[in-house]
Amino acid sequence: MEKSFRYTQTQHGIKMGLDQNAYSQDKNGEDEHLAEWRKHNRLQGWMEDLWNDKGRPNAETENNPMGDFNCVPLELDLDDIDRLEADLDDFNLPETNGFFFGSDSYMWESEDGNKSSANYFYKEADYQFVSDARHALSQGKKVFYSCWY
């Protein structure tokens, strides 16, 4: 299954960075967009950890010089979505660095040292994805996460 990846176009050409998307796929192989993020490095780290935990499915290390998990579709099941939601609730997405990943995508501490989600730019999109993924899975569709950097 070959996926097309969107590039961020700017006035000066293509903008490099971590682009992430999620989609569902029905039994006929038709894809439906669920979510997209740009440089949400904590989500990227969470998904890559999950990919490793699942045994690195679809790994193409010889043909993927940019990294093992780059452009690799990761299928998510209901347990994965439930775990993601719990980790979102607990501020438990791992700090993740990468050349194209940008600065930390999650504000973990407020100025007074308390954990805060006040500046968590992707919070609404993350929870919407959890909801949309559950809905797609309940309809018998498969759900995938993919990234490009």
- What structural class results from the helix and strand content? alpha+beta
What characterizes the major β-sheet?
4 strands, antiparallel
Uncertain stretches: 1-14
Q: What is the mean predicted local confidence, pLDDT?
A: 80
Strand content: 15-25%
Identify the strand order in the major beta sheet: 4-3-6-5
Report on the structure:
With 149 residues, this protein is an alpha+beta fold. The protein has one domain. Helix content is 28%, strand content 21%. It is built from 3 helices and 6 strands; from the N terminus they run ββββαβααβ. Strands 4-3-6-5 form a 4-stranded antiparallel beta sheet. A two-stranded antiparallel ribbon has the order 1-2. A hairpin with a 2-residue loop joins strand 1 and strand 2. Helix 2 (78-89) packs antiparallel against helix 3 (123-138). It is globular, with a radius of gyration of 16 Å. The two termini are 19 Å apart. Residues 1-14 have low confidence and may be disordered.
